[in-house]
Amino acid sequence: MNSRIKLRDWSARVVEQRLAKLERELARLEKTPDADAIHDTRVASRRLRSALRHLEDEFREGEADRLREEVSRVASMLGEIRDLDILMLSLAPEARRPRSPFPALLQSLDRRRARVLLNVAPAALVLGKRLAWWQGRWAVAEETSERSPTVAAHFEKIYPKIVRRYFNKGAKLARRQAGPDELHRFRIRSKRLRYVAELYAGLAPALRPALRELRSIQEVLGSMQDQSMIVEYFERRLMDVRTPQRQTEYMRVLHRARMKQAFFRQQFFRRWERLEQSGGEKRWLAAAAAPAPKKVQKRKAP
Question: For residues 100 and 87, what is the distance between their CA atoms, to the nearest angstrom?
């Protein structure tokens, strides 16, 4: 990355690149809406939306919000499919038990997934066309054209602030042993910080170890959130269950999900403690200040 490039020009370039990436993933999803295509499209959409949220001040007012809303419609469909996949995966072992009530529930969830999936390909086609329309139409805000800072100056200004806020929030949650709802919101914060840091990784390659630590925290909180979703689903379902046998089966699944939820929650607290004890905040801040390695030019043979 050229650290002397103006922020406004770099912002347009980043969004164009992420638009193109999502466009390719949507074309693949439209043809083959399998698990890999769904996952890759969700990741591409999150990275585009993160860039739009972070850089929205560099564009004409309202443009970033409009595009983010268009992308969110398809992303919400794909998120619903993933939630159904997690539910069905958790129920598969239970459905093999003798006299289990879950085969019928699995079939119901599978039919619901198929209905959502039917809408994915048309929605992907429409969004793909919209992204093609957006390509090349990005214009920076006119009032920033003369006073736009360089990418390096912008990064040096915003990165320390968001890292300090992140560690301050994480420390508070760890001290009071926060519950799943607060940790879910912290997972979203972790994800956003990671995507923002990835934007500048070319400017500060020393950030890569910090990104790996951030991904580790995000993953354990993601596993906790999967179990939270299962807990919430079966707590709702349990209110409509009438037969004692079915109640017993539902309570077993609910108990198992709560145990896993508690396990991953404690895993987060342990990882956070290790991160703090290893001077994580100082290391992440120092990584941003570390100079990028100089490229060694090869001499031509005489």
Answer: 16
